[in-house]
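Quick start: read one record
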Amino acid sequence: MRIGVDLGGTKIEVVALDPSGHLVFRARRPTPQGDYAGTIATIVALVQEAQAASGRARSVGIGTPGAVSKATGRIKNSNSVMLNGQPVREDLEAALGLPVRIANDANCFALSEAVDGAGAGAEVVFGVILGTGVGAGVVVRGHALDGANGIAGEWGHNRLPHGADALARPCYCGRSDCVETYLSGPNLARDHEIVTGERKDGAAIAAGAAAGDPACTATLGRYATRLAAALGTVVNILDPDVIVLGGGVSNIAVLPEMVRERWAPWVFSDRIDTRIVVNTHGDSSGVRGAAWLS
């Protein structure tokens, strides 16, 4: 039995998968806000529930924002800031009596989609998260890449490419014009408000564009151009077989087509064979990928 945990900023989810990848148990709890000890206790309780329902696991996979520092073994770069500097693996192994494997949540998303989702059968999969933040995971021949610094796939904190209408937007990381400052869900809404004065979320912008609203159409066009530019750079460096879109913004169904129509100026090739598709497993992809770690 495989048990995976998705440690998110607002909820913690656990699943148990049988050897074929079929779901046999699933449960969610709210994440105790700002409470590290409470978060560890919640994970332990959920894993114990999963084992009671489906059998004892040999190990547990955890998907979390950020990464495990190669220098300290502790969490770094997490936007759930209470986790930064914490020995999550050691604390969970002590409480559970099981080996714990931790990976970035975007790596887990990419792994899930590469194993039996929208990227199944592909040699190289780039799994993109377009949500509250922007991240990605890289899977090669069924294995998620960690990287020498534990940051493989962190395209969200690269600068938006030249020619994609960068506006010197500051990022919380201390740089400016990071991809995340344009392509996260909140920044899609922010861009629309800056230009039009209207407050609309991504779903409302997409609906307005579908209905022919000129302002929403323009906002979605700007977003798609910036996404095409940023992904074009990824294609130049990684040249993946498949790019799988995830996160809330990926629910805008026209995005893959809009990117395909726009990304040629940023890709150094006479043709582009990389497929860009929407995920198969929705918001369960991350937790399923965590289970595949175990």
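Residues 2-108+284-293 form a domain with the Nucleotidyltransferase; domain 5 fold (CATH 3.30.420.40).
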